[in-house]
Amino acid sequence: MSLSSHTHTHTHTHTQVPPLHTHIPGHPPPEVRRLIVNKNAGETLLQRAARLGYEEVVLYCLERRMCDVNHRDNAGYCALHEACARGWLGIVRHLVAHGADVNCSAQDGTRPLHDAVENDHVEVVRLLLACGADPTLTSYSGRGPISMTHSAAMETFLEDYLSDLQGRSEGDPGICWEFYGTSVCEPSSEVGLYNILADPPGPEEEEEDEEEDEDEEQRARREVFEFELSDRPLLTCYNIQVALSQGPRNWLLLADVLGRLRMTSRSFRRLFPQLNVRSVPEDVFYLQACRSQLLTGPDKQELTFFRPDVKDSLELVEATPELAGMLGSSLEFVDTRWDSPEAGTKTVNKSLK
């Protein structure tokens, strides 16, 4: 098959961005009638507009679905190749948003990322990488993005990006960024300056006064990670405050617990009087639950069942190990106090089934 009719070329000159014309939504832009499409090369109107930088025409084609966004011409190039080769960042965004394959390959293995690198369009390269372009892919001749660079800025960017992906050696100076806080910007003669990043708190260095105030139980609780395991989905847990005399605690909706146990409220209270059951107005519950960091459902869909303006009472039961066992869960504790090289990490399993 002869590919001589394909006009895809690489250039390092930046062409002037064509002027954009406002038009009535749904009506074709005026450039549509003036663009000449080379159908003998398998070119579409979308590819021609992407090559010449006519963003309005590109949007018109994409919104009207006049052309397949991943259509290949006779040489295997897509509209994304054309836009990346010429650095039309806005057009690249539109194409990717409408499903363009960021790793699509021409017949010679050229990818859109290769076109952007070879023509020194750093921002287009950033966008492609952020959208999943693979920087390790090469053309069929074996050339990768690093070997296609023509500027020190592009080469440095790609080298640092690949180093971050593949990991750096321990002595590499680029393994971390240096940041000294705002104190380096202040005159040295000023009194009372404080480097906010100096002496950061850590697990090995605790304030003496805090250690004195903290009792043994609090220190043990802080050094133990708790995991709840179950063969069924766990009930939604809400970290809220139900009394002024107590801080936030973990609570479950009593209705959820009764549904899981298949039990009435009267029977539950009679059989388990030791469990803490409290009532809270629904609007107060909703307000606190919206701010709860333990609520991790998608888009907080759990809260769609509650009414933020209703003051009716909701009954809650405090989440305790005993209640977890009744619901068929097991708790696993990982004690970080036993993380010395000699002792290893001590894991304590407490089954509550």
TrEMBL record:
First and last residues of every ANK repeat: 75-107, 108-140
Recorded protein name is BCL-6 corepressor PCGF1 binding domain-containing protein
Keywords associated with the record: ANK repeat, Isopeptide bond, Nucleus, Phosphoprotein, Repeat, Ubl conjugation
Query: Which GO-annotated molecular functions does the record name?
Result: transcription corepressor activity
Which is one Gene Ontology cellular component term of this protein?
A: nucleus
Task: Look up keyword Ubl conjugation and say if it applies.
Answer: yes
* Residues covered by region (Disordered): 1-31, 196-220
Q: Name one GO biological process term.
A: negative regulation of transcription by RNA polymerase II
Q: Which Pfam families match?
A: Ank_2 (PF12796), PUFD (PF16553)
Q: Where is the composition biased (Acidic residues)?
A: 202-217
Ranges for the BCL-6 corepressor PCGF1 binding domain?
223-336
